[in-house]
User: Fold Glycogen synthase from Paraflavitalea soli.
Amino acid sequence: MEILHVSAECYPVAKAGGLGDVVGALPKYLNEAGHIAKVVMPMYRTKFLYANQWDVVHKGYTNLGNWWFEFTVIRERDNILGFDLYLVDINGLLDREKVYGYADDTERFTAFQIAVLDWVKDWQHTPDIIHVHDHHTALIPFMLRHSYKYRSIAGIRTVLTIHNAQYQGWMGWDQSIFIPPYDMWQWGLLEWNKNINPLAAGIKCADKVTTVSPSYLEELKYMSNGLEALFEYEKGKCYGILNGIDVKVWDPETDDYLVHRYGLSDIEAGKAKNKMQLCDQFSLDFDKPLIGFIGRLVGEKGADLLPQAIRDSLNHIGRRMNFLVLGSGFPEVEAALQAIKPLSQYDYNVYIGYHEGLSHTMYAGMDFLLMPSRVEPCGLNQMYSMRYGTVPMVRRTGGLKDTVIDYGDPGGYGICYDNASVGDITQAIWRATELYHQKDTVKQIRKQMMQLDFSWENSVQQYIEVYQAAIG
Ligand SMILES: Nc1ncnc2c1ncn2[C@@H]1O[C@H](COP(=O)(O)OP(=O)(O)O[C@H]2O[C@H](CO)[C@@H](O)[C@H](O)[C@H]2O)[C@@H](O)[C@H]1O
Assistant:
């Protein structure tokens, strides 16, 4: 089978979050399973672009409403990612450094999707499946099926994976001219609540829809930012498949970002060295448990609860632990986290921004990773932390519920709580502080977590079954 992934992110080319990790790994493991998987994404101006060799494979001329533009498709020459990688260049729209966050994101991603379909239409051969990810590429199933100019390729099957249903790419009907002329009888497929809703259109039009964990699929039926009824209606074609992690990238024995690498045989010494490095760098106290947070500082991740939970812990549990936060997002959350810094007695620090290398050192050097998410479609951080022997402290939701068992339960290894509230987080922090001093239990938990299998092999088989079902 040949599968073309269309995505806004792909690690290490461009990554803003977990979507990049998944699209950087899944195709590689599909190829290893004997299929042909390729990725096409926008040609942002990132380091990866300048560091590698490319061939031009296609040049096209097309339009977004009244605006006509040229686009170029290039392919990475040496297959260094383990799959064919194509980038689409559209001057004026995609030639930016960041993935998202521009006022014209709707134009950027709609033009990207049109360019991709124009290219596929003119390609010498067609893939069996076009696999799109999140709302940035979710108009493709509609356009492929109903825009007149893609009639010759309308038979290609489509799969949509939802990594995050909070963001849906809403467009006003005044922007409908962006979509290449289509069968007007089908306008209802684009619509949801009086707007064009690309994610909803993708759910309606894709042959199969997947979410990134089984629990998240269930949750979407009663909590999906307005799409609840649609998920209930379309449940027959939806599948929940837990993400894997790229165990080649995320391996404490070989991780290039780590100065002190370690494996199962020297977990304690390895983690101690990494913790020492973090404590030196961020003026923290090595002897106290180190509890960290890595991620986008947004409501979904429960990041707004962190400042109060940290303050309450330091005030009420006592200064028996350290905190280190890495992330960026809502300015008010960033400011509230910065405001704790002057109160630190060598037990709190924060790095505002995105830092891939630091995240790896943190997974290795922390004792605990806090994830108080309100919504967590799958969550990769908890799986990375376990692979690095760091105990996850998660709210029971979505993929967190599917991957972490409380250490108080049979076979358990993590710390779990039910509510995204300051009280529950503080209680979990207290439990972590207590657990930290049970050295033998911690050693045994670390060993157990590092041996858990979160590799892609299992999930890849489930994707293959979904593709086969889509092809019929
Ligand atoms: N400031 C920072 N510096 C360095 N690295 C940072 C960082 N902030 C985040 N990261 C990294 O970005 C990734 C975040 O992945 P997640 O899966 O936790 O969340 P995200 O919400 O982006 O993904 C969505 O898609 C993924 C993939 O399907 C789902 O797992 C998830 O639940 C869903 O919300 C991790 O690799 C993390 O280390």
Summary: The domain at 264-450 is CATH 3.40.50.2000 (Rossmann fold). The CA atoms of residues 157 and 468 lie 10 Å apart.
